[in-house]
Amino acid sequence: MYETATEMVRTEHADLPRQHDIAATQIQDRRHFPNRVSHGARILVAALGVVASAYATNRLLTTSPDTNALSIATFLAFAGGLLSTWSPCGYSSLSLLRPHGHYSIQSVAHWIPTLGTHALGYALATIIFGSGLGLIAAFVPVAGTAGWPLAVVGLIAVGYGLHCLNLIRMPYPQRRIQVSHGARNHYPMWMISLIYGLQLGLNFVTYVRTPILYIVVGLALISGSLGGALWLIGALNLGRWMPLLVNALPIRDQSVQAWLASNEQNARLADGLLLTAAGAAFIVFGLG
Length: 288
Prior knowledge:
Order of helices and strands: EHEHHHHHHHHHH
Strand content: under 5%
Largest sheet: 2 strands, antiparallel
Number of domains: 1
Strand order of the largest sheet: 1-2
Low-confidence stretches: 1-25
Helix content: 55-70%
Number of helices: 11
Radius of gyration: 20 Å
Oligomer: single chain
Structural class: mainly alpha
Distance between the termini: 51 Å
Shape: globular
């Protein structure tokens, strides 16, 4: 049912009926890795992110704070989308949504509709999710990524950055399920790709292993506009979709999966660095 055994904890009841598959499989948070980074190194990453970002942001206060804050928010959203590839659904989507047969120009050409419908699913999800956040944002008594609301989001971002670096523990509510794996037994690949794109693009329908998602949602809510919310969710979902492009290259699935698994801890460190750095920047912009 799942392509990444390291991501899951299975029960011993392998012969359970299909309707009980999800109940028999549980997604766990990853906080410990085989090659553990030392506590001091993780503190250094956090300090580097906060101090360097705060200094650089302070130098930018004389320019256009709103524009600079939006640029950082956009980059964070896109990077968060890329880092979500290390979620269980990221592993399995890359493994399933591949060209059929041996690699060739013809097999890639036949695979292009799958790539396109996956993008369409993400686009539809962006409109649905982004519009919902934009509607809520219209009633939030703040407008624009500036002032104390931005500083509050920045403080939360720093907290989740420290969470990713395993220095503190923050709440991490998630639906601990994957995409609809049963769809592969009933629909052609292009339709499965569309369904997966829609599910993943809604972000809270499946498990996402990066708290950058929470910060992007917070930024969308304080943007005060439909356009701002759609822009940030669009950047997030673009980052989520782009890793599928690797399947257009002559790279074996086993190599992709092995690379992801071997760099999972690095992705977690990148999460922590980006969140602490962006959080510090938002605090400076918000209070400056």
